[in-house]
């Protein structure tokens, strides 16, 4: 059917350039390193490569602070090197997608330098400037109570020279662009044209649902006793976001055969997210919602890093079941991702990273993600079952700005509250180990040589301790039973069974806290698949479980097509399904 566009059954692979592959022996990933792995990605079964930001940047937030949208961060390489990647990907029939970070720029971008130079500068209104307020004591304070994303700091930074505050929803080095200004919007569209004309196949758009702020910048609702509060209600899925994305589509995206995925955090319900990808609205092809990312977190939907060890499988299922079913009903299209550079590793979150459970857990996750509807996104390292960094790494190894800012803010808050100079932080550290972004940013593990074959020099971030124990690409590509080989099989299976991509999603036994089971049914080709996944945690190491197939499902002709356990291919369903810990099975009915 014509509604089966190329990006729908594609597998996207996200590269985090700093940590992917270093060919210059500088301890930092390079474009030549990426080029050397294009064939590798093709062998794995990847269709689309997405590069996290490689643009010119002071790297206050690992490149999500861009100082020149049309040139590259020198240590990565040149535009010519980048062109080689594009050519190599296209030669293999693969597509290349770039990160687009336009909610904010770097404070070192020439636009911002001009903007802050004087109130009369023509680019003043390309950013969001505001006068301060006076508090009861007559002191100058920010225009409202919004908290920036990292740590407990105000989202407004005072500018001494021009005596106004500017807005930054992230670091103060990441001032927000003023989308209300049509000149700014068109400068962004021109830049997008420039990249698309170079031949790229689309964009991943950073926090694109943050661009429209509630007019007048009112205070955010007060939810706790902190000074600054979650800006979500005032800046997420704001009043003009759809209007602007439609304009962007008209002016840019619709002129190319490209696809766009918007990163869209926020607590709103599915019907707030489905319009972004509903083709009648002509905006984006899909978005990354964040609901599953808060299943194992306490408090605050937006980016809470406080771990909840009592998270429930039914909660996890509810998120996916809702989005799978509702997106289809509401005419949207799902993206299906678990990991990225902002999240800890899935195996350590939702399965078990004990050495004996880890490979099976990795395969379970592969079966899960590969059998969900929507476009599949995998993150570097998922294919070899990378897990969180060892729990005994000292605090100093956590070098992400968010990790550092959160720890520092919390320490200060506890000092104020308790009056103690060294308040107890052990619960925070425990949470950090479980949820920090650092977990997903360790260098990629290519082989068992020093630094995991990532670099000849000491890497910018410590390599996981496990790389020589089989947790590397070289070892796993040779082993037909490895997570890598399993992922390769699953990606191929997804192409062989279009029901996995397009089928109707029918959840089964939704309250079951041990197994996750569902049907994928593509009536256009009479293909029905049953997926049964054992997520029972037991004491943390997993547990056996029994799945009773509901009577209304006809399993009389069921044949197993793949499993990460002992069950034989082609075997039937005879009564209940007995699953070993972390076992998953896919049957064709
Ligand atoms: O992330 C946006 C985002 O909301 C979160 O995932 C973020 O990581 C944060 O932890 C919330 O507490 C995007 C990028 O993916 C991230 O790397 C950047 O730091 C951020 O935007 C700013 O550009």
Automatic annotation (TrEMBL):
InterPro entries: GH, GH13_cat_dom, Glyco_hydro_b, O16G_dom_2. The keyword Hydrolase applies. Residues 14-441 form the Glycosyl hydrolase family 13 catalytic domain. It holds the Pfam family Alpha-amylase. SUPFAM superfamilies: (Trans)glycosidases, Glycosyl hydrolase domain. Keywords: Hydrolase, Maltose metabolism. CDD domains: AmyAc_SI_OligoGlu_DGase (cd11333). It comes from the Eukaryota. GO terms for biological process: maltose catabolic process; sucrose catabolic process. The keyword Hydrolase applies. This is Glycoside hydrolase superfamily. It comes from Naematelia encephala.
